[in-house]
Amino acid sequence: MREIITIEVGQAGVQVGSACWELFCLQHGIQPDGKLSSQSSQKEQVDSFYSFFSETKEKNYVPRSLMFDLEPTILDQVQTGPLSQLFNPETFVSGKEDASSNYARGRYRLGKDIVEICLDRLRKLADQCSQLQGFIVFSSVAGGTGSGLGSLLLERISEDYQKSVKLNFPIYPSPETSSAIIEPYNYLLSTHKLLEHSNVSIVLDNEAVYEICKKKLEIQKPLYLNMNRLIAQVVSSLTMGLRFNGCLNGSLDELEPNLVPYPRFKFMISSQSPIFPASKKTDLEELSNLVSSTLEAYKPANIMVKCDSTKGSYITTTLNYIGDLVPKHTGPTVLALKYSGLIKFVDWYPTGFKCGITYEPPLVIPGGDIGQVPRAVSMISNSTSIDEVFIRNNAKFDIMYKKRAFLHWFVNEGLEEGEFLEARNNLADLHAEYEEALINTDTLEETVIA
After folding, report:
1. Quick one: which of 45, 271, 280, 327 is 20 to 30 A from 394 by CA?
2. Cβ atoms within 10 Å of 112's Cβ, excluding its own
3. Average pLDDT score, the chain
4. Please, is 2 exposed, middle or buried when counting C-beta atoms within 10 Å of its C-beta (0-12, 13-18, 19+)?
């Protein structure tokens, strides 16, 4: 079994990661103390455990996970919460000071003091793996720890584990709400590093997930717990093929070749369907309709980052189906999607679709807000519409940087001002590349002939 290590950095990363482990345990029949439940068949499922769980001498299953934060509050909540007995104590590494939502403080001032401890824990965990497949990293590019320490860790992991896949779930600044004034600076510097060291980044933002919770799940005032459990459904769907039997399943290292046509086009949009509240009675036959569920996944209201997917062009897309399905069910569905007019592909990539099927039925947390469905689909796509996220945040950065507002807080923590210009130029180049990707090949041929 090819193992995967998850790394949760900062408050947002740890909270999203905890929601994922809560769901993983439910799916594998692992109790909060790490023991296998009586209903779970160890003989049938034991192989699937080892990609994300390791087995102790006491026959406990422990997550292959590491949680890092520069201050202990959030990690203390996990260690005293419902899953406190699940994790190895060495999973947690915390400092004593907060990064104050400052990238430079998280990377240079505080990060350099804790990064070696984090990497030492990572080496120990990696040494226990027989065939390490890669890393899944949860963090926020808006906060100080997630952006600063997160980028430093990713850089070092990229150096030490060059052949291992680095799959990131970065949480980006929301368009209309902000938890820190200097988010645009953190975003720019962190995205600059993601471009260099991540293989695939599935972009999320709190505002998009908040609206899905409010409109689809009918939660009047969604909490981070509601939002994180919804994100966990997408992460779970993406990794189901690595953890359970199915058809057309792939490994983590197949993501990049199927989704990334150019080295820098590594930022993805995602969605989950169907989504409906647990309190609402819905026709199960309607929920089992693959065509409607798949079409729903591509609607902008279901995308978990704020961008209008109808204004861009899709380059590649992956559909991960879960439940009682066979390949012949997906063929008509993909055909219906192609002719629906809902999505538009660039004309230079004719194939576009990749489908995966996992036979394990989808599960939701008992007593939660998400309704149980017999079948589900998650969508991960490379679309030029993601450039909207970069344009929006670049504009916010430009406004602040033009006035050199708050710049001294970064310089005083050890950041050289030239890093801002280097990062901004890098993002400007990325925007130009997305613009070029939208040009039709016919137009390019005419230009070359002329």
Report:
1. 271
2. 12
3. 90
4. middle
Three-state SS annotation for 399-411: HHHHCCCCHHHHH
For residue 65, what are the β-bridge partners?
6
What single letter denotes the amino acid at residue 86?
Answer: L
Closest by Cα among 199, 201, 93 to 149:
93
Structure tokens at 298: 């591509």
Residue 13 pLDDT class (50, 70, 90 cuts): very high
Mean local confidence (pLDDT), 300-320: 94
Q: Cα(435)–Cα(333) distance, rounded to whole angstroms?
A: 30
218: annotated active-site residue: no
Q: What is the mean pLDDT of residues 130-143?
A: 95
Task: Tally Cβ neighbours within 10 Å of residue 406.
Answer: 15
Angle at 198 between CA 194 and CA 202, to 5 degrees: 85
Least confident of 188-202, 292-306, 343-357, 412-426: 343-357
Distance, in Å, from the CA atom of 136 to the CA atom of 202, rounded to the nearest integer, reads 11
- Are 174 and 410 a contacting pair, CB within 8 Å? no
pLDDT at position 447 is 43
CB crowding 299-309: b at 16 or more within 10 Å, else e: ebebbbbbbeb
pLDDT in tens, 16-27: 999 999 999 999
| Catalytic pick among 55, 196, 211, 254 | 254
Looking at residue 103, the DSSP 8-state letter turns out to be H
Amino acid, res. 225: L
Q: Distance between CA 120 and CA 159 in Å, rounded?
A: 14
